[in-house]
Amino acid sequence: MPYFKYSAKSISGELISDIIEADNDKIVVEHIHSRGFYPVSVTEEKSRSKSFMLRKRIGASDLLIFTRQLTDLLKGGLPIAKAVELAFKQTENQNLKEIILDLNNQLHKGTSFSEALSKYPQVFNSLYIGLIKAGESSGLLETSLERVTQYQEKEQDLMNKIKAALAYPAAMLLVGLATVTFLLVFVIPRFAVIFQDMEQLLPLPTRILIFLSSALQHWWWLFLLVIIFSFILVKRYLDTAAGRKKFDRFKLKIFIIGKIMQQEMVVRFTRTLGILLANGIPLINALEMVKKVVGNTVITEEIDRIYEEIKVGKGLVEPLSKSKVFPTVLSDLVAAGQEVGSMENSLLKAADAYETKVENTVKIATSLMEPLVILGMGLVVGFIVLAMLLPIFEISGAIK
Questions:
Q1: Do 2 and 21 meet the contact criterion of CB atoms below 8 Å apart?
Q2: What is the mean pLDDT of residues 327-352?
């Protein structure tokens, strides 16, 4: 899906610009009108492939280190231009160094830090840029950077815990598949030669196993082509709005894994919204930014619904209470925070609570997946062994 850069103006003359992902420019224009603005220019970004590569080559850990360095340098009393210059010297990632160098050059030309960052939306998302812009407006850039750093640290910590918990079952599955492939390619053919010399009808499981082994040996290239072709078709389908929506909905329905994903997105939604509100960003604008970081079209559509209801005068509590995606308890927590005038703190506390839920769900998933993987691979290997032994048992019975 292409990226479009647009500029728009409100009735009062306020000028905004952003880069969004959309199927075509008509959708971008509709998006601009939905925000109450009028389009000035809409142009397709031609550097999508470069943006994708930059996003892949600059990891979350690289960006976290850069932000932490800036925060510490600003705390030390350095101006932002000098802090960026020193961060450039300490950065090891070459792609990020190029970007930091350009940021430094722009700052020396008088460009604001948030405006300089907005040139690289593939690296610095709307949340990052929005918080920096709010910090510049309030004169609290150091505080904004600290909040960005804390957000990144919590996000990365949660993802690392999920990856670490799922790494062992995934490794077991890979080892099991490698073992089965080795048996089919190298071991079964040796037995097949022996069975051919018997000149008798083999049991059905043995015939199935020998057929699979022979097909994998002689037609492996066909299997590979089918896999590659299927991957291309699926990828093209997922690049469409309908395909991506169906896939995102399917992910949320996967046994246990879907629950983990949904809880992780609740964490991301509440933490992002809480940090944005704490930084003084209006609720409507904050929801616009949150949409771009949740990473799931189903959740995005739900945020759009909440956004539209808030635009007509409703608060955040009522739209949340009607949500089928966000848990009911979340609206209760927001209502409690709203009553004491501290909704952002309630959202951040909810994020911490649901982060604990994600960790617990991951532990349960891991404890279930490990025996299931062992059982599954045991059944497969057991079938192979049984298929190989059945002809031998038949020969022994015939001799007796």
A1: yes
A2: 87
Which two tokens mark 194? 């022996």
Work out the mean pLDDT of the chain and round it to a whole number: 84
Q: How confident is the model over 344-363, as a mean pLDDT?
A: 89
CATH label, 259-358, candidates 1.10.540.10, 1.20.81.30, 1.10.760.10, 3.40.50.620: 1.20.81.30
User: CATH fold of 1-46, please?
Assistant: Ubiquitin-like (UB roll) (3.10.20)
pLDDT band at 341 (very low <50, low <70, confident <90, very high): confident
Tens digit of each residue's pLDDT (9 = 90 or more) over 73-125: 998 888 998 999 898 888 888 888 888 888 888 888 888 998 889 888 888 88
Greatest alpha-carbon pair distance for the chain in Å reads 99
Between the CA of residue 170 and those of 67, 165, 212, 221, 381, what are the distances in Å?
32, 10, 24, 25, 18
Predicted model pTM:
0.71
* For the chain, domain boundaries: 1-46, 48-124, 259-358
Note the pLDDT of residue 170. Answer: 86
Show the 3-state SS of the chain: CCEEEEEEECCCCCEEEEEEECCCHHHHHHHHHHCCCEEEEEEEECCHHHHHHHHHHCCHHHHHHHHHHHHHHHHCCCCHHHHHHHHHHHCCCHHHHHHHHHHHHHHHCCCCHHHHHCCCCCCCCHHHHHHHHHHHHHCCHHHHHHHHHHHHHHHHHHHHHHHHHHHHHHHHHHHHHHHHHHHHHHHHHHHHHHHHCCCCCCCHHHHHHHHHHHHHHHCHHHHHHHHHHHHHHHHHHHCCHHHHHHHHHHHCCCCCHHHHHHHHHHHHHHHHHHHHHHCCCCHHHHHHHHHCCCCCHHHHHHHHHHHHHHHCCCCCHHHHHCCCCCCHHHHHHHHHHHHCCCHHHHHHHHHHHHHHHHHHHHHHHHHHHHHHHHHHHHHHHHHHHHHHHHHHHHHHHHHC
Query: pLDDT per residue over 282-317, tens digit each?
Result: 888 888 888 878 878 888 888 889 988 888 888 888
